[in-house]
Specification:
This protein is of the alpha+beta class. The chain is built from 13 helices and 22 strands.
């Protein structure tokens, strides 16, 4: 059964394009992130033979390019892995290329250039050109974080047409379940532990981390019957310095069956997954409470409006008119209704039909504009007539609408007699 590969973003598409265009590729990323695995998966898919050379500071030119050997018949030349792959049309992966010796890198310069060839000075200057199916890949860890590595020369790095940055996939839990059939909770807890080590390594608190490869080793041991705590210790913790491994023991204890205590909460939890589930439930409860609060606030607002309407109900006065009750108005209502003051220009908007209205004895029609001469206003109890008697303290915008002073009427204005 073919293992599912979880490529990040456009990684696979870019690898495929590089292969199609015969462009060398450099993949950069943390240890165990899947750099080589991605190339191997693509080689299988394309049915190409792949060979891999793990470069170290001890890898010499004879192993890489080739060397002269002797037998009874005399001396003869034996190809190294580079020339072998070039002649046979194989895919070659050079792992940890930033650990290679300068003489190794120098052999690659002309191969990475447009010349695409290697001059074998050790074999009488033989010129070797690659088979049409030959493809070159290289991988490296971040140079400032791993002992023995060094930053690649800028001129050499620029010779790679495609440079891919590879990060840890967000599908690690699925990978552990699919490949080694461990429980979802166990896989989730192991991934959570790995993410914690990566976070602390990034901040400088740890010198190393747990990779996807480490997680797979641990899951493989568990699947084979090894107790979880022992599997974690021997596949992951023993790779940390002693002082750092000790600091991780508490987290490992939680994962292997310890109880998690969260400050402010009485109950304890058996796993990180339980803590996450509890937090999710609490968030849902808070959302529901917030909805109830918003509904209550809306009802209060509606009640305030009803109160305002009740306070504005008509009450009979001694003169037989219905006077607006001048009690304290709720803030919500005040915001909606602006006072009409003396000298303001207003427009008649509260009438039942387009007929003349009686404003202090003068006729005014629907939508007609006029200027308030006195601060007073009452609404007739028998009709929609707007009256402007003496006295009073103004009116809220209920029967007339306040407007800007018409410029053309500033000089024509005739004061309305009362």
């Amino acid at each position: 059964m073919k293992e599912t590969m979880y490529y990040q973003g456009a990684t696979k598409e870019l690898l495929e394009k590089a292969v199609q265009l015969n462009l060398p590729v450099l993949l950069i990323g943390e240890t165990g992130v899947g750099k080589t695995a991605f190339v191997r998966d693509l080689a299988k898919e394309k049915k190409k033979e792949l060979i891999r050379l793990n470069l170290t500071g001890q890898t010499g030119v004879d192993e890489f390019v080739g060397k002269i050997l002797a037998d009874k018949a005399g001396t003869y030349w034996q190809d190294g892995l580079l020339l072998q792959a070039m002649r046979r049309g194989q895919w070659l992966v050079l792992d940890e290329i930033n650990m290679a010796l300068p003489e190794i890198l120098s052999k690659l310069h002309s191969l990475l250039d447009d010349d695409r060839m290697v001059v074998v000075s050790e074999n009488d200057g033989e010129i070797v050109r690659p088979h049409e199916d030959f493809r070159l890949f290289a991988t490296m860890n971040p140079s400032d974080e791993y002992a023995g590595t060094k930053e690649l020369n800028r001129a050499f790095l620029s010779r790679f047409p495609v440079v891919l940055s590879i990060d840890y996939t967000d599908k690690e839990q699925e990978i552990l379940i699919e490949r080694h059939d461990i429980s979802s909770d166990m896989a989730g807890n192991l991934v959570a532990l790995a993410k914690e080590t990566r976070k602390h390594k990034k901040s400088g608190k740890l010198s190393t981390l747990i990779s996807t490869r480490d997680l797979l080793y641990c899951a493989q041991l568990v699947k084979a019957g090894v107790e979880l705590g022992q599997a974690i210790k021997h596949s992951m913790l023993n790779k940390f310095p002693d002082e750092e491994a000790g600091a991780l023991n508490e987290m490992v204890g939680i994962i292997t069956g310890g109880k998690i205590k969260v400050p402010g909460i009485e109950e304890t939890f058996g796993s990180i997954s339980e803590v996450i589930k509890y937090a999710e439930n609490e968030v849902e409860l808070l959302k529901k409470e917030k909805e109830k609060f918003n509904d209550l606030r809306e009802k209060i607002s509606e009640l305030n409006e009803e109160i305002a309407d009740l306070k504005a109900k008509k009450v009979e006065t001694k003169t037989g008119h219905t006077e607006l009750e001048h009690e304290e108005t709720p803030k919500e209502t005040v915001k909606k209704k602006k006072r009409v003051e003396k000298g303001d220009w207003v427009k008649c908007i509260s009438v039942s039909s387009p007929k003349e209205e009686d404003v202090a004895g003068h006729g005014w029609k629907l939508d007609q504009e006029f200027q308030v001469s006195k601060i007073s206003a009452v609404l007739s109890s028998t009709s929609n007539t707007i009256l402007w008697p003496s006295g009073g303290s103004g009116v809220y915008e209920r029967h007339v609408k306040k407007i800007d002073t018409p410029k053309e009427k500033l000089e024509e204005l005739e004061e309305v007699p009362f």
